[in-house]
Amino acid sequence: MLFDERYLIAASPFIYILIAAAVVEFWQSRLKLSGWQKTAGLAALGIYTVLLLVSLKNYYLDPRFGKEQWRETVAFVEQPQSGKTVIVFDPTFLRFNYDYYQKRNLPYVEVDSRFEQGPGFAAQIQRLVTGYDSIWLVRSHSDNSSALNILEQSFTEDDHREFPQAEGIEVWHFRVGVKRP
Question: What is the pTM of this model?
Answer without folding.
Answer: 0.64
